[in-house]
């Protein structure tokens, strides 16, 4: 929770406490529910209970200072109503927070399951990508051995082979690392991200899938794009899901070029965002309202679950961004993702 919300909550509590010290304003203790509501979405249920307990203590303290020793009358009823309101709102807010956290956990598990399913779909492509550097390692190892076994060993050629072995092993390790990251089941870890680099990493995993289907990819990125703040694996999941949808849409196209265009640019609006636009030359959204594409269980494929775009929307919203889809002109589909720019404070 941000320190500013804690500061505002503290100031509000002190203000309400001061008001209730006046006899004509002792009923204003019910305003402590505003303090609870203010912090409800920005702290854990345990901290929320602590905040509620502090509000109850402040309310009882001001009442004791103002009415100590007085006979039982109407002001006690007002105190009871204020305390009940504070306690009930605290309990409801804590339960709502627990339900929200549980829903977020389920969404995270669903996103993880979607990544695993995606990797299952890409198994052949990933195996091909890993097999290429492994085959190169074997080839260069044999070549290096032959250069060293000559009557006059050629050390320069052997060293060049060993350098190729090193480069190929690094490439294989990078592919395995990317696959391992996608299987990671962990909470969102927001960090500084470079979108062009992230897209290149994603296309590397999809390269065989694209080549097998004869799909060309064009990339257009504006120069000097600012970084964004977000979870690398989650943002990569958006790109991969949208790309796979485009690839599957292009599979049936035989009458024209199969093309996917990725465009990165900055939207210079009041709230600066990076716009990632993925456009394909496929049939587009023929039988569905694009506004409904991001609803769960909506799919155009008989074998699809209809959760990919719904998960993408959830990820985009959790990063303070948006995602939308529309038909392109004259044909094809366009999916646009907007993510907020990392603001650097001086």
Short description:
The protein has 346 residues and is an alpha+beta fold. It has three domains: 3-105; 122-182; 191-340, Heat Shock Protein 90 (2-Layer Sandwich), CATH 3.30.565.10. The chain has nine helices and seven strands.
Model description:
The protein has helices spanning 3-19, 32-40, 45-67, 74-121, 123-149, 155-182, 195-212, 232-250, 308-318; strands at 191-193, 216-221, 228-230, 259-267, 273-280, 322-327, 333-340. With 346 residues, it is α+β, with helices and mostly antiparallel strands. It has three domains: 3-105; 122-182; 191-340, Histidine kinase-like ATPase, C-terminal domain (Heat Shock Protein 90). It has a five-stranded mixed β-sheet, covered by helices on one side. A two-stranded antiparallel sheet has the order 1-3. Strand 4 and strand 5 form a beta hairpin. Helix 5 (123-149) runs antiparallel to helix 6 (155-182). The longest helix is centred in the N-terminal third of the chain and has 48 residues, at 74-121. The protein is elongated and about 110 Å long. It starts with a helix and ends in a 6-residue tail after the last strand. Residues 302-306 have low confidence and may be disordered.
Keywords, separated by commas or semicolons:
346 residues, alpha+beta, Heat Shock Protein 90, five-stranded mixed sheet, 9 helices, elongated
Q: What is this structure's SSE topology?
A:
Layout: H1 3-19, H2 32-40, H3 45-67, H4 74-121, H5 123-149, H6 155-182, E1 191-193, H7 195-212, E2 216-221, E3 228-230, H8 232-250, E4 259-267, E5 273-280, H9 308-318, E6 322-327, E7 333-340
Parallel strand pairs: 2-4
Antiparallel strand pairs: 1-3, 4-5, 5-7, 6-7
Helix pairs in contact: 1-2, 2-3, 2-4, 3-4, 5-6, 5-7, 7-8, 8-9
